[in-house]
Design a protein that fits this description.
- The structure holds two protein chains of two kinds.
- Chain A has twelve helices and no strands.
- By secondary structure, chain A is mainly alpha-helical.
- Chain A has one domain.
- In chain A, helix 8 packs parallel to helix 12.
- Chain B has eleven helices and 14 strands.
- In chain B, helix 3 packs across helix 4 and helix 4 crosses helix 5.
- The longest helix of chain B has 20 residues.
- The chains are: A mainly alpha, B alpha/beta.
- Chains A and B meet through helix 1 and helix 5 of A and helix 2 and helix 3 of B.
Chain lengths: 261, 320
């Protein structure tokens, strides 16, 4: 545990002295703010139009503005992290290998699982730090809504983003352990994410293949969370995904000893 | 403290380390000497548990480096070829991190970090980022890193590479000061380093051990015995004949000195024979003016070359 903390501490420190973390967080917050503003405007405009129409035709207005804004915003966050997380994990092992510090870690009385978990938890913490300010935008919606949108939506949405982010970070960490080149790690991670995202494209759950593909798709499970439902199949999916890739990373750095052979 | 038995490491068809056996006693400094690519780094990496051996065993402090890797890692400090430093950390933070992952108890950590910095003269750089340090200082940080947890065994892969002459002397003194409390294995391809710091030397070439001995013994008991250098004013042919007549001479080489027409003769003798007085007598008997007469002991450099080139010749012969 102490070893794990030592690695965690070092990684956190490393994130906050390197420009990568600041650039990623800054970019993420900027883009999410621009889109939040855009969603807010568009959806409010739509709601006015709908209201006008409903007045003309004498129907009650149907639009749930705060709910729509939140859902659109959560969907946007999920898409954004697809682009941002490869940069958070690209250096996790690639940099250690390149600098030769892997030799220090591998000859210290510390196990591979401690190294991997320390690094993974650090990247997850950074991810949470990056996400935190976006809660401010959501709070804005809550402050100006009457009646309040369900809290469930916000909680499950953020739980979903953390799980999705955790999965992407675990996968990125694994890919980073395969190469010495950070750029290759980032590109491969992005490609792998994209495949996971679109694996169920054009398939519906009707056919056998379609339901399997849908289960494998990272975005499909996220949609449930963004709608305010915490589905057990989604929880199982993300947790097993994270455990699988943490385990694969442990095997990967363990196998480095042998690959040097 | 370190026992290596028949250690072999093959990378595909290339055998980097070939049935190497040696031991290092407690408190001793053993020098691992060999040209680049001789298998020094590979052997050290196996000892530290960084990579497994193909066959053979190695034990550190009684623990098998492969079977009991964690226990071995607790007992060693290791400086790899390139100092394993994080450029974005300060010297002190880095050593603190290393102390943590080396399981130094938290109440002793600050003291150990300070001690390691004192020993390597890094105290005035403690708050500096490692990336701003010169090559020599980085190397010192690497050495400090290997000492910080006060390990029983310290393994240093070319500890003086990249240092200036003053720093080299400092590091050598540091290493000598560590002996006794620590068992040290260091590798180098620089010969004087071995004779200055090590108690014993293992000469390794092409993955095989060519010799194991103390630097003094290696210097004195070399094959071909002693050499004597004689500077005389004499006709070349006559001098050569006269010196060959002296009993115990195995070989005479002469050379004309360009400056003042003196001749220099290098006389090789059989092992153990001291024929300096006989040579002096012979020269005086012929009435030649004698300017200099002294024994030349082969430097480690020559022994090294002799051992390693012999090896190469053998390898060639067996290949044919």
């Amino acid at each position: 545990m102490r070893n794990l903390y030592a690695i965690y501490r070092k990684e956190m420190r490393h994130y906050f002295v390197s420009p990568v973390a600041y650039v990623c967080i800054g970019l993420f917050l900027f883009i999410s703010a621009v889109f939040f503003d855009f969603f807010l405007r568009v959806i409010i405009q739509q709601s006015f139009q709908m209201e006008m129409q409903s007045m003309q035709f004498g129907m009650p207005p149907q639009i749930d503005v705060p709910g729509q804004v939140l859902r659109a915003f959560l969907g946007l966050l999920a898409t954004l992290i697809l682009f941002i997380t490869p940069f958070l994990t690209m250096g996790v092992f690639a940099e250690e290998r390149k600098r030769g510090t892997m030799e220090l870690l591998m000859t210290s009385p510390i196990s591979e699982i401690q190294i991997v978990l320390g690094k993974f938890l650090a990247s997850l913490s950074l991810f949470a730090v990056m996400l935190l300010p976006t809660a401010g935008y959501a709070a804005y919606v809550y402050l100006h809504s009457e009646p309040l949108p369900p809290w469930r939506l916000l909680l499950s949405g953020y739980a979903g983003i953390m799980l999705l982010g955790g999965s992407l970070l675990a996968l990125g960490t694994f890919i980073s352990s395969l190469t010495e080149n950070q750029l290759i790690a980032a590109v491969l991670t992005f490609v792998a994410f994209l495949l996971l995202w679109v694996v169920d494209l054009g398939h519906t759950a009707d056919s056998g293949v379609g339901s399997v593909l849908q289960y494998l798709s990272a975005s499909h499970h996220y949609d449930d969370f963004a709608r305010g439902t915490i589905d057990t199949s989604g929880l199982i999916y993300y947790f097993s995904f994270i455990i699988l890739f943490v385990f694969l990373t442990v095997r990967s750095i363990d196998s480095m000893r042998w690959r040097r052979a | 403290m370190i026992e290596v038995q028949d250690l072999t490491k093959a990378y595909g068809a290339v055998t980097a380390v070939d049935h190497v056996s040696f031991t290092v006693n407690k408190g001793e400094i053993l020098g691992f000497l060999g040209p680049n690519g001789a298998g020094k780094t590979t052997t050290m990496r196996i000892l530290t548990g960084y990579m497994p051996a193909t066959s053979g065993t190695a034990k550190i402090a009684g623990f098998d480096v492969f079977g009991d890797s964690m226990e071995v890692r607790r007992h060693i400090g290791y400086l790899p070829e390139a100092p394993p430093v994080y450029p974005d950390m300060t010297v002190e933070d880095y050593l603190d991190f290393v102390a943590r992952i080396k399981n130094v108890p938290s109440d002793k950590r600050a003291a150990r970090v300070t001690e390691a910095m004192q020993k390597t003269n890094l105290e005035d750089r403690r708050a500096q980022l490692i990336k701003r340090l010169s090559r020599g200082y980085k190397q010192r940080v690497g050495i400090a890193q290997a000492l910080v947890h006060d390990p029983d065994v310290i393994i240093l892969d070319e500890p003086t590479v990249g240092l200036d002459p003053k720093q080299i002397i400092e590091v050598r003194n540091l290493i000598k000061g560590l002996a006794g409390n620590h068992t040290i294995l260091l590798s180098t391809h620089i010969l004087p380093e071995v004779s200055m710091t090590c108690d014993r030397v293992v000469i390794i070439n092409k993955g095989k051990i060519a010799a194991v001995d103390t630097p003094q013994n290696l210097t004195s008991q070399l094959k071909g015995g002693q050499k004597i250098r004689v500077e005389v004013q004499a006709p070349e042919k006559a001098l050569r004949d006269a010196l060959t007549e002296v009993s115990g001479t195995t070989r005479v080489d002469t050379e004309q000195l360009p400056s003042h027409g003196h001749l220099v003769a290098i006389v090789e003798t059989a092992q153990g024979a001291d024929i300096r007085s006989a040579i002096a007598a012979k020269i005086v008997q012929n009435g030649w003016p004698l300017f200099e007469l002294r024994g030349v002991s082969l430097s480690l450099e020559e022994i090294f070359l002799e051992l390693t080139t012999d090896d190469a010749a053998h390898a060639q012969a067996s290949a044919n």
